[in-house]
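To: structure subgroup
Subject: Chain for Friday's discussion

All,

I'm putting the inputs and outputs inline so they're searchable in the archive.
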Amino acid sequence: MKVIVVGGGIGGLCAAIALQRQGIETIVYEAAPELKPVGAGVGLAANAIQGLARLGVANAVIARGKELEALTIFDEHDHIITDQDTRLLSRKYGISNFVIHRADLHDVLAQALQPGTLHLNKRCQTINQQSNQVQITFTDGTQTIADLLIAADGINSVIRQQLLPESKPRYAGYTCWRGVIQNPGVTINSMISAETWAPQGRVGMAPLPGNRIYWYACINASENDPRMRRMSPAQLADHFKGVHEPVQQVLAATKSEELIWGDIADLKPLKKFVYDRIVLLGDAAHATTPNMGQGACQAIEDAVVLGQCLQQQSTIASALATYEKRRVARTAKVVRLSRLLGWVSQWENPLLIKARNAIFRATPAFVTQRQMEDLYRVDF
């Protein structure tokens, strides 16, 4: 069996690793002309670490990032809204609160592939199914054929758009900036992942190895707003004027070239991930807003489960059917909950904010822990 993966992101690389560990010939085609150390931070929960362990790369990933002890949400005055100690979950499910630079994670995954697996500057243009094979045509005019095509080409998947032209990204209502900077001399809690819910928007921060800070900021805006696109670090810091330290200091210390901007979008949950010999994986199948930190985690889960299904089932068709059954409902739940959480956390109305914060503060810690455990129990 020959398998082709279109998309060399986290999900695509993990899928290739899972299949190659079973001796399945797997090639990855990535549209980017070169692999650059781009991106910001990425959070990995226990379900992702469990998946990486099954791929044999967990220790290498853990060595490049940082394990944290709590997930804490503050209001604009630095008062705690909710505080979840993740050490208890880590003892039960493995590391449950981990942050790493996306480029470091990608590097570990790429190194785990067999030599010659990853082909760059190969953008998929069209796909054509022929009996039990799939033909892929690239924008450079070349073609290739495989017994199975894994579409891991992201939220704007060319393959999904050909299969399901009506499935398009839906804007979440807020735009986001991200960055990774050297600590400019501010004091942050080096053991927590922190998020601030302010009337102006949200700001999250997490420490990375090497005295670096990964941060993100979300502001309600119209889609593709040119004012947001042009916003400088200084302007972004000024937008959050009045929010507790060190929010403004960290934003203002970011260099323009360190700033990554983009609107937040997800996909309306799909009912199917499998189309004959084509299977959707990761963001191509179930792109989610980042509010639960589950985007990369669910892609890693996909890869492990797909590998297991191909190993355990006697035919490709039965393996793909099992994969779809195991993944559609779980990922749809994450997409819906994450979108809901993003909507609530971006409220600007003072009365709604007051009521929301009071409800979160009154919610017992065990309720939040139970919700997180539901995510960490994976049917691997």
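Points worth raising on Friday:
The first strand starts at residue 2 and ends at 6.
The two ends are 23 Å apart (CA to CA).

D.
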